[in-house]
Design brief:
Order of helices and strands: HEHEHEHHEHHHEEHHH
Radius of gyration: 18 Å
Strand order of the largest sheet: 2-1-3-4-5-6
Structural class: alpha/beta
Shape: globular
Mean pLDDT: 88
Helix content: 25-40%
Distance between the termini: 43 Å
Strand content: 5-15%
Number of strands: 6
Number of helices: 11
Length: about 290
């Protein structure tokens, strides 16, 4: 039997995501996000930061709530920052990333084209949380994204699936459960280890040439588990464990994307490696 702690942690993560999703900002659309440069289509990239940054939310997230911490963090540092909604299901507001992931990647492709046309930049950088750190790899590999993207930074990306601390291993013991997930929330089914989507995505290697990859993981992750499965193999990959940077960092799957400034500092380093500074526990004050 699974320990209660392992059962309750993923549920707690979902409840926390839901709580964040119903704060007043949830009524805002991506184009009206309260920011300076966040989804501001008049923003022009500077010489210091010549590429726009596209933020890709996670499962059950959206273009505003997932980025109330990181988007202002990056805009205050001079980046042109944009976020999109993807994977919407009819009749399900706010909680996105539930549609088929290959179709979500098509939405990302169209959004990146929109951002590049608006900013005049030749390439963008992508930063994604959870599914949002994994889904862009489909865009890079199969939809021509590699020629339009300089870097992909994943915060707790489920690159090889999400077992929810082992809960998905129980699906075969409940007849019809996996079929129900596939029928109602295909984006969740696509993230089950061994799914047809993940098999296609990871066949032939994790990366494509010309893109710089960074994975930022936490050992306290209770969703994209085991946490080492988040790591990528291949050329031009940097896999980072938060606790190697700051042993005191207790962030789990949701917090790493919502509010962890140590993780945010490492994101900034990945976006601008020429100006990178050491990430430590003190980075929470940077």
């Amino acid at each position: 039997m699974l320990p209660w702690k392992r059962v309750l942690r993923p549920l707690a993560a979902l409840f926390l995501t839901a709580a964040v999703a119903v704060v007043p900002a949830a009524t805002a659309s991506a184009d009206s996000a309260p920011s300076s440069g966040w989804n501001d289509y008049s923003c022009k990239p500077s010489a210091a930061h010549p590429r726009p940054v596209v933020l890709v939310h996670g499962t059950l997230g959206n273009s505003v709530d997932n980025w109330l911490g990181l988007a202002p963090y990056l805009t205050s540092r001079g980046y042109c920052v944009y976020s999109l909604d993807y994977g919407q299901l009819t009749g399900v507001p706010f909680f996105h990333g539930l549609g088929p992931i290959d179709k979500s990647a098509e939405q990302l492709s169209a959004f990146v084209d929109k951002v590049l046309a608006s900013t005049g930049a030749a390439e963008a950088d992508l930063v994604g949380h959870s599914q949002g750190g994994m889904m862009p790899r489909y865009y890079l590999r199969f939809l021509g994204g590699a020629g339009k993207v300089n870097a992909l930074v994943g915060l707790a990306p489920d690159n090889h699936g999400a077992t929810l601390s082992g809960l998905t291993n129980l699906l075969p013991y409940f007849p019809g459960a996996e079929d129900l997930v596939k029928a109602t929330t295909p984006g969740l089914a696509d993230q089950i280890p061994g799914s047809a989507f993940l098999t296609k995505l990871n066949a032939g290697g994790d990366t494509v040439p010309g893109v710089h990859y960074t994975v930022i993981a936490t050992k306290y992750d209770e969703v994209a588990t085991p946490w080492r499965s988040q790591y990528l193999s291949g050329s031009d990959v940097r896999n980072v464990l938060l606790q190697d940077l700051c042993p005191l960092d207790l962030s789990e799957h949701v917090a790493i994307g919502l509010l962890d400034r140590i993780a945010f500092h490492e994101v900034a380093n990945a976006l601008d490696p020429a100006r990178a500074t050491a990430t430590t526990c003190a980075s929470v004050f940077s």
